[in-house]
Each structure stands twice: as structure tokens, then as C-alpha cells.
Amino acid sequence: MIDLTSSFLKALLKHSKSPIIIFKIKPILVVVEHNDAYRNLIARIGVDLAFYDINIIPNLISDQEKELLIETVNQVSERKEEANLIIHPIYSNSPNVNWELTFSPVLQSNQPIEYIICSLKEIPTNENGIEQILLELSESEARFRGFFEQAPLGMCVLRGKELVTEYANDNILKLWGKTRKEIIGIPQVEARPELGLQKSLLNRVKGIFKTGEPLVLNELKIATALTDGFFIAMYQPLKNDKNEVTRILVIIKDITEQVNFKKELLKAKDILKIAMDASEMGSWNIDIESRKVLLSDRAQQIYELESNNLGIEEAKALISADDFSALTGGIRYALHHRKAFNIEYRININGINTKTKWLRTAGKAYYNEDGKAIYIAGAVLDITEHKQDEIRKNDFIGMVSHELKTPLTALSAYVQLLQFKLKDTDNSFTIETLDKINVQLKRMSLMIDGFLNVSLLESGKILLHKTDFDLVDLIKTIAEENRVILPSHFIQVVGLEEIIVNADREKIGNVINNLISNAAKYSKKESLIAIKCEKQKGEAIISVEDEGIGIKESDIPKLFDRFYRVESISTQTIAGFGVGLYICAEVMERHKGKIWVESKFGQGSTFLFSLPVEEMLTNEG
Ligand code: ADP
After folding, report:
1. 463-612 matches 151-259 in CATH topology
2. Cα three-residue angle 382-383-387, rounded to 5 degrees
3. In sequence order, what are the residues at sequence separation of 6 or more whose Cβ sits closer than 8 angstroms to the Cβ of residue 215?
4. How far apart are CA 391 and CA 338, in angstroms?
5. Does the CB atom of residue 577 touch ligand 1 within 6 A?
6. Homologous superfamily (CATH) for 151-259
7. Ligand 1, residues 559, 563, 567: which to mutate, most atoms within 8 A of Cβ?
8. pTM over the 0.85 mark
């Protein structure tokens, strides 16, 4: 028999840091003693301690485990051997803990076991130590905080209906104009009194605790001393394991730029509509897959159609046969090269040839991610009147130029006659004057030819009379003529090999003449004009190089446009109409050749053109 009241035993129990209880086996199993550590444990897990009651433990464990415990105690008393048991008590506030119980019999010589000492150790349920769990917890919290801080969004967590701020990242603090100290742990209305004005917003947010539904506010306008812009605010309820909303995660994104962009876009669309209405421009869209053409009201009006929706074949049938291949070819080229197109063409209204309209359409294709064209869209303008004006103007220019040429030719003949008559006299003043008259007459003739060519070109009446001739020979002849007309410059020809081309000799001659005349016009007296011809990869390449004023890069793309002249102090006093290069370009295009320029502003220019050589020879054969 041991004395449970002995001061030695009491001191021993008190001394132990582990919870210890002492069971008495007979007559019934009861807990007869326990220490402070056990008492503290029971207090920590919030259960009442009933003395001498075995049910103190069953309060915390399942019936099954209670049976196991009693069985183990009996077994220890019978076998007089130590035993271990692990049970899982149901803690309400710390669920992931097991108890490891060690039962030791109190042996008293050969007598049956009367008392069993049980020591108790709390161990975490998984293999990791409790420290590891705590570490992981703090790590994941740190990660969460890191994500919070680095997110390019304003984020915070609000707790309870008072909306107490638990977390807030720098972005949201900046938006609120608050420091962390002023906000954390404080209800929103208290920390941000300015919110008082937004009662309805606050009520909606608080409502989430009832509904459990997230809330999204789009294009929320926030205008404060610190912020002025548009935001998207998302309020996401966070629930506990009983599915109750305990907190709200708030995410705020600044969408001012997007909203302003959208506004600008709408404005631009509006302006475009006004501009299109004012210029009476229509728009169209071709869906490539369905082969459907959709027209705007104005485009429908231009085409004089009853419907604004038609099949592509129907649309094609409207186009005049004369322009059909130019239009479809142009669109196909633009599609293939992913470029915009701008084409003039005629349509036959109601399929009747008697009413024709001139249209100008500009557009481009739009591609999907795989690079496949999905639709073509553009604008269309009725240019019939403008075109008729142009035709009338061209006819007029053509007629006037033609009429001027007749007396000019007669005048040249008379001058030549006089020159012939005076050839052997010593009337040098008259001879020289007649030479000068001749130069001016040639110039005038060239200018009139230019106008005549423009009008012929525009009315499509320019025809090529192709023959095989030696380009080098032509260049040499023209250079010789120009040495007489332009004694002010040195004209040099480089490259003497024969190059036979199949082309319109007169028109190619005009191009060379034009380039030489420009080279002289736009350079100083006594400077060099070098004409080179060479053969390269089946092409004859002719260049006319001068040491003149040169051309700015920005002017180069417009140089070959009709009536384009570079406006500058150095060109102000030089006569011209800006048609020479335009005609050259047209002539080259009709020969399937190219014309271009390389220039350094202030240093000189080189105009080049190329003509196919081999192709011509094969055509010939
Ligand atoms: P223009 O009658 O004005 O000379 P062109 O069509 O022949 O008309 O030339 C267009 C413009 O290109 C000229 O006004 C001039 O500014 C520029 N240009 C042409 N050739 C040269 C050149 N060799 N050097 C510098 N500028 C040139």
C-alpha cells in the first residue's frame, strides 16, 4: 500500500514537467492523483476536471479509445509490464495533437498491481515536429504577404461587419493616402472618415457578409486630393469552415488608362463618323470566309443598291470590265504583302453600261493569330465628278499643248532656215542670238511635250511603240545634243558596251532627257553630270548623277507624284511644273521597269532607272 498523501510523492509529482496521473485499479478503475502539469493541460484545452473520475479522459476521447485505454490499464496490471498507447483527444482549439500515454505499474513485491502511473506527452499528428508546422505556417504567411506587397494591385483584407483592416498593401495605402499605422486594426469608417459620404458603397460591401456573394464594381470613379481616376474594385468573401463570411478580400486595379483609352477611341470613332459623313464617304467590310460584303448606308447609296448585304460575286459583277483586273489584282497584291490599297475604278449601276460611276476605295485586310486574312475593310468615295473634271482638264491641256506645238514647230523651222542662211556670213551676233533662240525653243517644246504627255497619260491614250535598239547609242546621242543645249555643264557618259533593249525609243529618250535637264536645273554651272549604263542580272541600269542641291529624304517618296515640286529657297527661282518625273515614272511603269533616286541633301543626286533586258529578248524570240 502506498501513501498517496506522503509529501515525498506530492513533491515528485509537482516536480515533473510532464502531465502525470495515477490510476487505482481496484475495486474500480479511478484516477486517484494527478499533477499540476496535467491540471494546466486540462485547463488549456478548456475541459472541467472531475476528480476521481475516469470519465475525465473519456470527455475528450471517443468511446472506442476509452475502451482501449481501460484495456491497456488492465493489461499493465496483469502483466506487470509497462505499455504505451497513442490516442487522439478532441481539442476544440488545437485539433492536430495526439497524446502518447506511458503506463507504468507500481510494483510492490509479489502483490497484485494496485496503482498505475501514467505520464502523458503531446505530439503533433503528422511526422513533422510542431516547430516545423509553425515554421511552414510563418513561411506561407510570408509568401502571402510578399504576394500582397508585390502585386501591382491595391489589396486589403477587411474583417467583420465593422470592416476592420487586417492587411493592406502599399498600393492600396497610397490610394487611400494612409500609413499602415493609421489603418491596420481599425474599422474603415473610423480610419477613413471620408468614406462616410459613400454610404451606399459601404452598405453594399457589408451586404457581402449576408449574401456571401462577391461584388465587382467596374469603372468606379475615385476623385480625391490624391487620386483622380477610374478603378475596378473586386470584393471577394472569405469564409470559415462553417461557410460563414468572416473577411473580405478587396482587390482594386487602376484602369484609368484603359477607360481614357476607351473614351479616346469612342471620340475618334465619333470624329471619324463626322469626317466620313462630311466627305460623304462610305465604308465596307468583306468577310472572307462567308464571302459576304457588308456596306454602310452611304456605301449602299453610292452603289445604288437595295440591300447593304451582298455576296462577293454580286459585288464583283458591279465593277466595270475595264477596271476589274486592276482592282482585283491590286487587292490581291495588298493582301499578299499585308499592305493597304488605294484604287480608282468604275462601276456600272444596275448592270447597265449607260450609267457609270468613278469610285476610289482604300482599305486593308485584317489577319487572325495564324496570319490568315479574315476580313477586308475600307472606305469608298464617289469621285465621278472629280474624275470628269480631271478628264475635262486633261482634254483642255492636251488641246492647248497641241495647238501651241504647231506654231512652235513652224518657229523652229524658220530659225533653222535663218541659221542656214547666215551660216557663211560673219554676222556673229545674229548667229549667236539664233542659237540662243533655238535653245529656248527646245525648252519650250520640251515643256509642251510634258503637258501633252500628262494629258495623254491620264486619258490612257499613251501607247508604246517598242523596237529593239541600243540603249548606249541612244544615251550617247542624247548626251551629244545636251552638250549643245547645256554648255553650262560637263556631260560625261560612262559605259560604252552595247545594250540592246526592246522599248519605246522616243519615250525612253524623253526620260533620259528629262533626267539630264533636271540634273542641270538643280546644280551649279560648270558642275559634272555623269551618265552611266550597265547591265546587271538581266536589267539595264541607267543612272544620271549630278553634283547639285540634292533632295531631303522626306521629299523623296513624293518626287514622282504629279505636280510635286520641292519647296525651298534654292528651288524657288527654278522654273518647272512638277510633271517631268511623274511622266518618267509612268513611262517606266509601262515598260515594267523601275525608276528611283539616291540623294544626299546638299551634295547631289543620282536618278536611276532600270529596263528588263533578257526578258525583252526572250519575248522577241
Ligand atoms: P520640275 O519641273 O519641278 O523640275 P520634276 O517632276 O522634273 O518637275 O521634278 C520634281 C521636283 O524634284 C523638282 O521640283 C525638284 O525639286 C526635284 N528634283 C528633280 N530632279 C532633281 C535633281 N536632279 N536634283 C535636285 N532636285 C531635283
Report:
1. no
2. 155
3. 204, 205, 207, 208, 234, 235
4. 33
5. yes
6. PAS domain (3.30.450.20)
7. 559
8. no
Q: Is the pLDDT of residue 441 over 50?
A: yes
CATH of domain 280-382: 3.30.450.20
Whether the Cβ atoms of residue 539 and residue 611 lie closer than 8 Å to each other: yes
pLDDT tens digits, one per residue of 583-615:
899 899 989 999 999 999 999 999 999 999 854
Q: What is the Cα–Cα distance from 195 to 495, expressed in whole angstroms?
A: 87
Length of the chain: 621
Domain ranges (residues) in the chain? 7-132, 151-259, 280-382, 389-457, 463-612
The residues, ordered by sequence, that sit 6+ positions from 168 with a Cβ below 8 Å of its Cβ are 155, 156, 157, 176, 180, 183, 184
Please state which CATH class domain 463-612 belongs to: alpha beta
Pocket lining: 518 vs ligand 1, CB cutoff 6 Å:
yes
Number of H helices, E strands in the chain: 19, 23
Residue with cell 460563414: 244
Could you tell me which CATH number the domain at 7-132 has? Answer: 3.30.450.20
DSSP string, 473-487: HHHHHHHHHHHHH-T
**In 214-370, which residue ranges form alpha helices assigned H by DSSP?**
256-278, 297-303, 312-318, 321-337
Q: Which atom of ligand 1 is nearest to the CA of 519?
A: 23
Topology given in CATH for the domain delimited by 389-457: Helix Hairpins (1.10.287)
